[in-house]
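Batch job 17 of 40 flagged for manual review because the log was empty.
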Amino acid sequence: MYFLAQISDQAAASVGAILAFLGFGMLTVSSLSRSCCNIATQYLGAGKKQDANHVFTIAIALSLIVGLAWSLLLILFSETIAVALGLDSDLVILAAAYMPIIGWGFAFFSIRRALASIMESYGHTRDNLLSSIVLNLMNLGLNALFLIQFGDGPDTTSIQLIALATVSSWFTGLLLSIGLAYRRKLLHGLGWIEKEKIRSYLVQIFRIAIPAIAEPMAYQGSRVAVTMFIVSMGSMALATNVYVGQALTFVILIAVAVSQGSSVLIANSVGAKDFSNANDILWKSLGLATVSTIFVTFWLIVFYRPVFGLLTSDESIMSLARDILLLSLVSDLGRCMNVVVGANLRATGDAVFNSTTGMIVMWCIAVPLAYFFGIVLDFGLMGIFMANAVDEAIRGLICIYRWRQNIWQSSGINRQLATS
């Protein structure tokens, strides 16, 4: 986003707006691969490695299919998507220049996510970290190189070069992930699956995957609706939302990282029927995520001027961003409960209740509140983030309630084995 901001606030705003739509595809792929990982990890915990390898094989195949489908969608309907988001004509041109190139590389992103889930299941998180570091350094380097060499051209050309840098880094990350997985001999057990077994695995996968995909899809849909509210507030509000969203990504990623690490451990413990250990891991993980996110948010507030000064020189944008970060400090607890506990409920196989109630809260409370606070009461972008805070808190408390019911102890492969 830094490099987009160097092109113009309009470039950052246009790509930021369509990221709400791109998030549909990314969340679909991530949720699908994560669901496969959860099932496979439970099999590993139960000592059934062959079953785990079969699930990994299906994960790669499904990720390829979904990735290619999203590639075609982004390539063929880029302008239609930009218009549907309510962008004005100038921003539509910029967004339509960006999406097709991203579409060409989306399958690379999809398969890499499946491979990352396989490595996570076996505890090789350092390999994923290495792959991510190389990917991001390459992306940064190519962005800088392209803008230095060709930054004086039209904004559409600059945006296309940034998209090309992203796709190139995705492809490099995929090759590196394949190499690391092969070196760990994680791909050796993959291969042909007997036809009668495929249905059994798919039932288990989609029992988690469908609600796991549905909830973030509903969330992303609500984000698209809210983005349309923000578009009506003007380009300054849209740019501020993009910049604050990028800053808060660092905060959210802490909770996501903790949830991913804990979900592997908890799924393994559930597969081994060590429920006490799984419960202890959950509460320790929630505490770690909460303290860490509040700590990072606090320092973002302290250094808001140099942080947002990297993206814009507009004082009104920086001032509004600071106020939103102060509100985010309050909503960090709800966000952590929602991310950490929700992810671990899905990891155990208990996904339907949490996903259903989450979707209801998003569309019956979060979106109406965003419209009421932001548009009706004219609180603007601050009203949007107030609604977000209420949404995160309610969904987080629902996750805590569900975990305490202990239904997760009889979900996942434990239910499948009990009925076999």
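Reviewer: the log was empty due to a logging misconfiguration, but the result itself is present. The chain is about 85% helix and 0% strand. Unflagging and moving on to job 18.
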